[in-house]
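User: I'm curious whether this sequence folds into something compact or stays loose and floppy. Could you predict its structure so I can see for myself?
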Amino acid sequence: MADVRDIFESDELHHAVKAIENLIRKGNLVRGAPDQKAFRELALGNRFHASEILRIILAEHPVYPGLREVLAAGFVGWVLFPDLKEIRNVLMIQEVLWHLDGAERKAGLLTEKLSIERDIVARYVVTSFDFLKEIYSEFGGYEAFTRINNIETMNSIISVEKKTVETTVRALLYLHHEADLYRDPEYDFAPSLNRAVTIFAHLKRAPEAFTYKDHFVSRSLLHRRWSETKQTLALVYAASTIKVGRTSLLQIILNLQFSYSAHFKFLQVWVGRARYVSDHVFSKMGDWELQMETEKLLPEIQPLPFKAAALPLLETKILTSQFRKKFKNSSSN
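Assistant: Here's the prediction. I'll summarize afterward.
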């Protein structure tokens, strides 16, 4: 067998490379833009560049095949847990595997006999060399897929936090209703997390038919989630309001079932509603840091108004009673 170094220097290999490059050009295949930040810088460094990543995900045309899909997987992982790099990396690696598998299917490698032609098409045309260089190799190639935590492990991590996420969503629903009611600062309490916490406190004292611990976490856990994930609160709440079949976009994300190909049609609505939460709810709370963090993430997104979901009668009564400044109302009569 010839020495590998001799093969690298051979005319045959040089001709083969030129032929593949000509094939890519002839097919007018999408290639990475020269001014585009590398995938490693966008998604694998100490900072996850969420705003730039969102712009790529929402763009009409892909930078190169597979990039939007992998970045979208990382983005939804970041939305759930901005500080847990491991979760978004597992989701992105899973999407890498799906992209590679899809490329082999398109090239017929799973139904036809292996051939050099099919392997070239699968690897360099459908998968794309940019994907292999920018994403697959940056994760460490095949070795990365042998040592990552599986989806079942990630599910166990997320299941511990599910109720905290759902409690946060409920608090934001209360705030949405309060923002709708808020008219006059002299007669109305402004929406605030403390007012939402007050509603939870009243629910704790509700009739036995309402089992508080089955629905919500403690005040301290809610405050922890709120303070640690300020930049994604609007997105989490907005995802809970979008119906996907019989469930919500948030439940799909929490169940690690999100994929760009299946759910991209909901993305514009998702980010538009999140921007509306910032403009309509956060602005009335007077929490400028919360509003600034959201708008920094969604700088060019147009707000998309939507109605707050109806509350059960018990929660409606508590919210209404806690929202109005009764002493002001009585003094005006």
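Summary: The longest strand covers residues 243-244. The first helix runs from residue 4 to 8.
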